[in-house]
Amino acid sequence: MSGFSIRNPERRIESNPFDVDAWNLLLREHQSRPIDQEREFYESLVTQFPNSGRYWRAYIEHELRSKNFVEVEALFQRCLANVLNIDLWKCYIVYVSETKGTIEKYRETMAKTFDFALEKIGMDVLAFSIYQDYIAFLKKVPAIGQYAENQRITAVRRVYQKALATPMHNLDTIWADYCAFEKNINMTLAEKLIAERGKDYQNSRRVEKDLQAMTRGLNRQAVSVPPKGTASESKQVELWKKYIAWEKTNPLGTEEYGQLARRVVYTYEQALLSLGYYPDIWYEAAMFLQEASQTLDEKGDVKLAQALKVECIGLYERAITGLMKESKLLYFAYADFQEEQKKFDAVKEIYNRLLTIEQINPTLTYVQLMRFIRRTEGPNNARLVFKRAREDKRTGYQVFVAAAHMEYNCMKDADVAIRVFKLGLKKYENEPEFGLAYADFLSNMNEDNNTRVVFERILTSSKLPADKQIRIWDRFLDFESCVGDLASILKVEKRRKIAYEEAQKDLGMNHSMLVIDRYKFMDLMPCSGDQLRLIGYDALKGNDTPSTSTSSNPKPVPTRGPQAASAIMGGAGGHADVARYGFPRPDISQMIPFKPRVNCTASFHPVPGGVYPPPPAAAHLMSLLPPPTCFIGPFVNVEALCSVLSQTQLPSLQYDKSENGMIGPMNEADVKKDLYQLLATTSDPSAVVRSSALADLKRKRGDSDEEDEYSHLQSSTIGSIGSRDAYKRRMNKKNE
């Protein structure tokens, strides 16, 4: 098993395409091979994880080692704008600086590269090196003449000021460099500029400390994989949402809303690098872009508002063409956004793109498209969508229900709606949900006779299995209880009883539970909750009276004695286990976990053949350790090792006390000091008793040299641990 998990990453990927560890193992193997042989692997890697900056960077660096600059630039065009990974962007800057040095406009190209990078990822908390490299590059640019020198100083000062207004690591270094830069130019002007920028620096420094506390525990290097619902994944989602909410509170206190919106959007982008399979994160990011665009439009910043709208469209396109290509939620939200912009042709294209995906049920898409066409083009064109939906074999019965309600509510034509239901009943006669929807529609129109006809037609149909007729019979009885007389109610109840017996032949049917549906109304039941559970009625929706469910001080439940028995039979109170589970349960709090064991002795476990589970601390440690499948050797023969250790003879060393107070290589005073410290900190009672006996012996012999120095250690030890024995305590006092 261990060999399969370690040596066969290809087979692991076949069983789980999102096995990140297996992909990393393959990546290490393929990085040492020529790139011409490995492009197919890298393409499959970035296709599986399209928003992972780490994998894109590995692909690009492998191409760079072979000096394939054309392929490198093509890869940068594919990933750079959408994957805002700080390491990937640093790789891009290094590539431009190392490969564009021979072109004529190298300095202009590098300046544009740095400006482009700062525009995209300049707000990152790890952007210190980019600012530092940009400043160093600008300082090295030659300036001929006073005008050129002033232009260079202005450019350097602009980058410094932008960096000081950004919360990021190593901000103190940039501040110190900026102060030195201004002082080297003009000491008089430096004091004023430093004082002005000092406020931004202090504010950014404060926010950076709060940012560190807010992002503690975030795994920014995690690769987007479909969620499994683990505790670690839930924790990461919680931390990211907490971080996004914190950014929305405007911790920098900026008065420019556009800057605030940019920081929040960048935070969403960073979250999507790790949470790309969470549609709610995509939706919340798009909603924030829409709200920010509207806010900026109201404030008069039309240019930035339009830019955010374009960015919102790009976000939706990235979602539905990438990781969320099968998320109907994002398709519908994208369509609503385009409809709000009056781009109706784009909305139709979005719905058509969703309908072309074969593995997705198109019923809901047809329903939403029919509603959109009804809003924009009228009900007549919406009927064409309904016709198209009927021709699609993948469509469910829900589209007939939606079309019928549209005809009745929008066109005010009940006859057409009924004809739509009849048409659907021919096709979906075996669907109880469609029959219930048809019956409810007729009941709401007060068509009592037609409603009975529909019920009879559905229940007498041979296409509907007996087990699916149960809900229809329940709804039929509820309908007759509302509008029928007692004779019709009893007649339906009798037929319903026969249907239940046929559907549940293998189960013991309690006929008392069937009569409950005749008298119940909404969540009001004719019996108490305990009685319903004992009868076997599993459709309990509430308590028998509203006061019992809203009581803030419920009455204690008796668990033994005659009151408990009367509670089960309908009296006050009730047994805790019966009230919770519906039947008595044994007390399992004292049960011992059983774990089977091969060749087990009777001393391991009270039950032969088992062992005790590890203690909680050991179990927690075992959960943190790698699984046994990760270990492939070397394996140790434990019995042989124990045999060797038991036969090993340890050398016995004896040292005599010398005249200068040395015991072998050790000083006698150091030995005593270490011994007393050991006795003072030990919790072994036998050691404390021995130390007391040793102290008594030394008093009788009169050997008190260097003992006073450690007497407080002895007294504290004996007083705290050895004083448990009253006789020894009295004897110690007499000796003193």
Automatic annotation (TrEMBL):
SUPFAM superfamilies in UniProt: TPR-like
Q: Name one GO biological process term.
A: mRNA 3'-end processing
Q: Which InterPro entries match?
A: HAT, Rna14-like, Suf, TPR-like_helical_dom_sf
Compartments it resides in: Nucleus
**Superkingdom field:** Eukaryota
Question: What is the name of this protein?
Answer: Suppressor of forked domain-containing protein
Q: Where is the composition biased (Basic and acidic residues)?
A: 725-736
Q: Which SMART domains match?
A: HAT
Q: Which organism is it from?
A: Caenorhabditis briggsae
Presence of the UniProt keyword Repeat in the record: yes
Keywords linked to the UniProt accession: Nucleus, Repeat
